């Protein structure tokens, strides 16, 4: 038991037992020395009372499991690679090496990122960890690739066979607290390898090596075979046979996403990321899975969208905030609008939600609203990485107003503009609901609305993401006779009882938006701009 005492107040925290005798008398000595105007007996009495109250409060255990999930969420190094070299063309791939991953210099030490939540992320080395330093993989006709083998010039500290080198790196990354290690893979075979003329044998060998080394993720990206469904399907099949512990993610071939275990919605501009990613997810969710495949959708760096629709997360933002090293504005993460690098808490919250409910694949009763909402962003200085854009252009993107999975579409009541609203019932019964921001003219905001969702069972944990006027939860099976409603910031560790702050009528619970905002930001990092994210549970 630990205490902080002042003349004005007495606070007790982290109480697990009621003052063991030895600790109690140590505290008594402390109070005797510090409390000049209060008698010793009164102090002891006050401590005992507060201890009892705190002990009662501590019975509210965290609603978030302590162990990381098995979700294939990851952090990709691509944007930190670009940031370090001011996004200067081919130099972006030059810094994918052990010095930048583990070094102590300025803009190094990437494996030290996200100390609060890296245990929930796979560290994915992006392009080009597997080619010699000073060379460039153009995705088509490179003769330099050692594809999927740790390059010795970039990682000179790791010695031995390909498996030994890669295995040593896996152990070092895991030792720093990451869930695992993954790598970017070009969609082609290295022409310099003798096995390249036999693709199936080539990939069997590489996958077996990575499996033995402990690699857990492949991000298969662009290259000569990027649009070849047959080739990508072969990769998945071989992976399942030779490397069952390596998750293989594909891209490009949208209509075949059900043939794979994971499919990435691909790169987007931050200023239009919400509607564009929603467009792509809406295209994927109605697909059917082929036998044996997981069919997971990775919606990249939209964590609340991922939570609302049962998707995996591919984090692209990084914690080095502010302009580029050369002083120019970071055009990949513009500060106007959502300012994603100032919003790390939302990543943390969505990852913690995956400890409660893990992402699930396509072919799960997707409902796509026919109504669309259009965002219109007027482009400012250095707010995009797309070279054909110009300052003053209006970028218009529309996406479904509502989407749901394995449950009815949410009902949205609001005046004027509405938010994008998502809801999903996960396979384990947990339910998530999310409102997403709009980008209109030069303003990013979440229009407040009353959102109503239908939930089968009051025992289901409810993940609530974003801002609301109110959230109404209608339970099909009704509520306990004397329901107790607990809620917790997903980033936090302790729930609070909000029973007296909600309206309970028949089978429904209405949670005011002010309560969601307060509780969903209780553990917020000072200065962080993330929207609220909390979990609710009815006892």
Major beta sheet, strand line-up:
9-8-7-6-5-4-3-10
Count of DSSP H/I helices: 12
**Portion of residues in helices?**
10-25%
Q: List segments where confidence is low: pLDDT < 50 over at least 5 consecutive residues.
A: 1-58
Sheet with most strands: 8 strands, parallel
Derived structural class? alpha/beta
Sum up the overall morphology in one term: globular
Could you tell me how far the N terminus lies from the C terminus, measured between alpha carbons in angstroms?
Answer: 28 Å
Please indicate the percent range of residues in DSSP E strands (runs of 2 or more): 15-25%
Give the C-alpha Rg. Answer: 26 Å
The total count of strands amounts to 27
pLDDT averaged over residues: 89
Oligomeric state of this protein:
single chain
Task: Describe the structure using short key phrases.
539 residues; alpha/beta; 8-stranded parallel sheet; 12 helices; 22% strand
Task: Describe, in plain words, how this protein is organized in 3D.
With about 550 residues, the chain is an alpha/beta fold. Helices cover about 25% and strands about 20% of the residues. The chain contains twelve helices and 27 strands. The strands form five sheets. Strands 9-8-7-6-5-4-3-10 form an eight-stranded parallel β-sheet. Strands 11-14-16-17-21-27-23-24 form an eight-stranded mixed β-sheet, sandwiched between helices. Strand 25 (about 505) and strand 26 form a beta hairpin. Helix 6 packs across helix 7 (about 200-215), helix 7 crosses helix 8 and helix 10 (about 305-310) runs parallel beside helix 11 (about 345-355). The longest helix has 18 residues, at about 40-55. The radius of gyration is 26 Å and the shape is globular. The two termini are about 30 Å apart.
